[in-house]
Each structure stands twice: as structure tokens, then as C-alpha cells.
Amino acid sequence: MAQRSRPRLVDVAQAAGVSIAAASRALSGAAGVSDAIAGRVREVAAELGYVADVHARTLAGGTSTSVGLLVHEIGDPYFTEIASGVLRVAAQRGLTVQIGHTGRDPDSELAQVRALVANRVRAIVISGSGFVDARVQAPVKRELQAFQDAGGRVAVIGRHHLGADAVLPDNLAGGRSITEHVLSLGHRRIAFAAGPAALTTVADRLAGADQALRAAGMRLADLPVVEEAFTRDGGTRAALRILDEHPRTTAVVALNDDMAIGVLAALRSQGVVVPQQMSVAGFDDVAVAEHLSPALTTVRLPMAGMGEQALLLALKEPSARPRRRSTDHHLVVRESTAPPRP
Amino acid sequence: MAQRSRPRLVDVAQAAGVSIAAASRALSGAAGVSDAIAGRVREVAAELGYVADVHARTLAGGTSTSVGLLVHEIGDPYFTEIASGVLRVAAQRGLTVQIGHTGRDPDSELAQVRALVANRVRAIVISGSGFVDARVQAPVKRELQAFQDAGGRVAVIGRHHLGADAVLPDNLAGGRSITEHVLSLGHRRIAFAAGPAALTTVADRLAGADQALRAAGMRLADLPVVEEAFTRDGGTRAALRILDEHPRTTAVVALNDDMAIGVLAALRSQGVVVPQQMSVAGFDDVAVAEHLSPALTTVRLPMAGMGEQALLLALKEPSARPRRRSTDHHLVVRESTAPPRP
DNA sequence: ATGAAAGCGCTAACAC
DNA sequence: GTGTTAGCGCTTTCAT
What we know:
The structure is a homodimer. By secondary structure, chain A is an alpha/beta fold. Among the domains of chain A are: 1-48, 434 Repressor (Amino-terminal Domain), CATH 1.10.260; 171-302, Response regulator (Rossmann fold, 3-Layer(aba) Sandwich). Helix content of chain A is 43%, strand content 15%. Chain A has helices spanning 9-16, 20-28, 35-48, 54-59, 77-92, 106-118, 138-149, 171-184, 200-215, 232-245, 257-269, 303-315, and strands at residues 66-71, 96-101, 123-127, 153-157, 165-168, 190-194, 225-227, 251-254, 279-281, 298-300, 324-326, 330-332. In chain A, the strands form three sheets. The first copy, chain A, has a six-stranded parallel β-sheet, sandwiched between helices. Chain A has a four-stranded parallel β-sheet with strand order 7-6-8-9, with helices on both faces. In chain A, strand 6 (190-194), helix 9 and strand 7 form a beta-alpha-beta unit. The radius of gyration of chain A is 25 Å and the shape is elongated. The relative contact order of chain A is 0.12. Chains A and B meet through helix 4, helix 5, strand 2, helix 6 and helix 7 of A and helix 4, helix 5, strand 2, helix 6 and helix 7 of B. Strand 2 (96-101) of chain A pairs antiparallel with strand 2 of chain B. Chain A binds a DNA duplex through residues 8-10, 18-22, 24-25, 28, 30, 32-34, 37, 52-53, 55-62. Chains A, B: This is LacI family transcriptional regulator. Chains A, B: InterPro entries: HTH_LacI, LacI/GalR-like_sensor, Lambda_DNA-bd_dom_sf, Peripla_BP_I. Chains A, B: Residues 319-342 are annotated as: Disordered. Chains A, B: Keywords: DNA-binding, Transcription, Transcription regulation.
């Protein structure tokens, strides 16, 4: 096992019979080298299998070629699609992406941000809901501010108040749309399967729901909002509780598709037929929503596009004031919602 | 915009009134510092918001704190779950992970490997099928060999012949199991919705199918194997072709769940009722498989576990000969398969 | 236990 | 156009 180290720039320069400066310029495509030398250097480099050390290059003052992406959990299809968008843009630009889980835990998020900062990434994209309580994310905010002061760039998806460019999913209007839809079908005994109220995403979607309800002369406060984890299992537990505590419910609005999938599973296990005995709606329109049983009525958000937008924003020159890009949303009516039985 | 750069080790050392050597030792937890000094340094560092520069650290000879993960497409649930496992282990070990898309394209794969090598990652995990034709991946193999010779570690998931530690999903036996299941239901006019035959995963799963068929006195060569992209859309196209070219088919075995989802969608659009008029089986048991309409009969592979295993292998001391870890598989019978109608 | 100093491999001034 | 050289911020001998 040779443990022979990789060729360095000196090796290439020597083999090509030029100085390391010339070699460096030739390889980074900078001006100030004759085509003849540039060509030879590149040839020799390819022959030797030379690959420049990113650490040395970055340390020496070259700009960083990597960006960071933080998601709550890559297994959640919502984040998967966002990540896909980010990776696409990064690949186009020849950027490397470092990805980290935050698990919706502020401490873990802080640790991940620190790691990215230590890696001197060019930009950080943070996706996923923040917390309603601003104090919880104060340490992260401070860290991000320092990062930006030192020339780093930050873009967030779906959270506010972080002093950075933001892509804002249409949670409020989406919450209104899906609730209007359920109301228009004739439902009045509606229950919400919600994630933790501390998440801004949950708060925003519920606020939208409240708007729709008020327009119909009702109030969210009078309806059951069952709080569980913002996951498939959380949806299952929420549905079970709704069945148990509010048996006359005719429609469940889940605050994301993942929970809706859990709701569907719970209802099936309890022999409740959707949509005949219970309507179910989701939020996000993840890729599988249309393939579920029954196909899920939901609100479509352009997740992959949000990921692309966010990285694009972060790669742009910073503006004096944080930029905001709001997305649109589309109500997608499929088979899981229907009028209540008389 | 201050552009004020981040505090460096010198700043910490100065503020604590010690040499940078002492500060370095204190922060990296190395031996040779009095507890008093170590404590003070850490305190000051925290106060200043000091975070060591990974590039400088790595360049100076510290070991790299990041690992690379290559997937075909993070949006594919198969890879999503693998990635999830990798991220979990990485987080536990305090490692950063760089992720890249290869898009099942050898050139792009080579570029991604180079990027990871340039980043001096400690280990590279490559997931996803390789190509049956060894020549196609020769350049990547060479690059990986050089990386390993220089002390880097590599682990692959689901491919062979790369001279590295490997986690091998039970594709052959799984292909046999799912085919045996369909045969045992009484199906004889079976069609396969396959990905490109050039992928080893496809080849292995088909080989398993052939074994099962031969045991039943049949041969794969006599059955339709429709080749399309190894994706949801590919599944849709495959199903349409099967309906068109082999209308008497009673069961479709898709070679991964993503294709099976596409098959299900195509059949629904054509008014073919599953499983009454057509049985459908998948492979992988991705998270949503059980929530599909109808719930999918498939072969479960421990994807997240495979991701964990792979990174764990890559983080271990290298062995003289490449290690191999084979996974198990479980036939999961749900609602999408049933006996053919008489 | 502590500090001084020599690099790690590269880029970017700066000379020529 | 080409080469020389001074760092980038850190870890690690090697003295003390």
C-alpha cells in the first residue's frame, strides 16, 4: 500500500518545465500565460492525474467552491425535493454541496451552521421552518450574522427574521385555499392535524385556515387542532386522537403531506373509508401524493424550484436589504376529499 | 458591511495570553496543556465565537472531517433513504458530508469523484448501480484507486468490481423471491418492467428472476422484459408498452418501486384494476410503498442500514482485501398482487 | 507544560 | 509572459 501522496502543483510544474505560478495560472484558467504553456501544463496535469487541493486553494485566498444546505431530515420528501433543486443548481455552477440534518432541533442546527462556517462555504441555504419564538434561534442568527459580515452569503427557505435573503412558500394563502376547499364541499366539523405550534410553518398555515374559517363565519379556535410531530407517524397519532376525541369530524386537514399520509394509514387501519366517511387534505404536494390511496387533495408548492431559487439568491451579490421571493401555490383537488355524507 | 474577518487562532491565543501552540492543543483536545490553560482558552474561544478553519486545519495535516456521498438522484426515494443513513452516522461522528448527483452518467460520476478527491474527504461512499460493462467505469476505478493509494477510503453500495469495501443488497435472491411469489399465485404470463440492462442492479435482479422461472420450468428469455428508464416515468412507459405489446399479461414485476409506482399510475389511467385484472410487484420497499393504492407487494431492502453500514465500513481501518457485507431481504406481500383471474 | 518555528499546497502580489 | 516569494490559518515537531 504505497501511501504515495497525490501529485502536487510543483510536480506538475516541474514535469512541464515551468514555474508553479505559470502552472497555477494555466490550470485555473487565469490570464497571463501563453497558450503553448497553458496547453502543455494541462496535458501534463491530466497525465499525472493532478487534482488541486481545495483546502490549499481556499486557504490561499481562492474563493470557496462549496455551499452548505441544512434540512430537517433528508428522508422527508419535502426536503428531498428542495435538496434536489439545490443540487441541480450547484452542479451547474461546479459547486460542491455539504448537507446536514438539523432534526428540527435548534442546538443541532447551531452545530451544523458552525460546521459550515468552519468549512468556509460560500453560501448557506437553510430550509425548513424556524421557530415562532425568536429567542430560540437567537444563537443561530448571531452566527449567521457573523458569517455574513465576513462575506458569507445566506438564504433561507420558509422562515423569516433571520436577516437573510428568503424564499417564502405561500403558507398563509395555501392554508386559506385548502380550508376554503373543504368548507366549499360543505364540511363544518373539520379537524386539523398539525405539527408543533412552535414552527412558523405550522403557525402560518393555521393562520391561513383561520382566515378562511372567519370568512365563513367560523373560528379556528372553535375547531380541534391536534398537535403531533410534523411527520408520518405524527399524522397517524393525530388521526387516532381525532377519531377518539372528536368522533363526529368529517374532514381532516393535515398541515403537510407527510402527516396526511399518516392520517390515511390510520384511517385505513380503523376501517374509515376516505373520502366517503372522512375527507383528508394535505399540504405540499410531494411527488407521491398523486399516487396515494386515494390520491391526495393538497396544496402544491414548487419545492424543487424553491431550492433552486434559494441557492441562486445566495449566489448573487448581496443587496442592502434582504431580498424576499414569495412562491405561489396551487390547490390540487384529487380523490381524498368529497362532500360529507348527509 | 464590515467585511471584518472572523477571529483566528492567534486572536484567541492572544486574548488568553498563551501561545498559539497551546491554544491549538487546548481546542483540539490534545495532551500537553494544563487544565487551567485549556479551560481559559476554551472560554475565550467561545466568547469570541471562534471556529477553526477547516481548510487550514486539513492543510496543516489534521485529518479531514468530511466524507463524500454520491447518489444517482437524491429525489429517488431509494437514495434518499440511503443518504439518511449516511447522514446519521456522519452526524454521530461529527463529520460533514458532501453530496453529489451522478445522474447515472459515468462522466458526471467521474467529475463528482474528482471533486471529492480535491476536497480531500476522508472517505467516499458511492451508492447506486454500476454498469455491467467494466470498461465504462474504468476511469472512475482508476481515480478511486489513486485516492485509496493516497490513504483515502472508499465504500460502495450495490456494485462490484471497484476494488473497495462493498455493501451488497440482496438483489439476486430478492429477484428470485418476488418472482417465486408471483409464480406461486399462479401467474405465467409475467412481464418485467426493467431499467437499463447495462445496470448491474437490473442484471442481478433479472438473474434472480430467471432462477425462479427455471425452477418452475420456464425461462426469462421467453418472457417480455421491457427496458425503460429506472424511474417513475420509465415505469409508466413500460406499463403502456406491456399493455400494448403483450396484452395477455397478468402480472408486471417492476424492478424497483419507483417504476412500480409509474406502472400503477399507467394502469389506473388505462382503467386496469390492480390486482384484479393485473398484479403488480415492486422492489426496494421505499417508505411510501405501503401507502400506495393499492399497497405495493415488494421486496424490502434495508436502505438506511445500507447507508450506515457503508460509511461505517469506510471509516474503519482498511483491510488487506476489500470487505463485503451482504444484506438480507424480505418479501413483503401487500395488496397489489393476487391470483390471476381464471 | 509551554513556546518558537517550520511547513501543509496553493494563489496573488510583485518583480523581471 | 514568466518566475519569485510572501502569506492564507492551522498542526506539529523540536527546543526549552
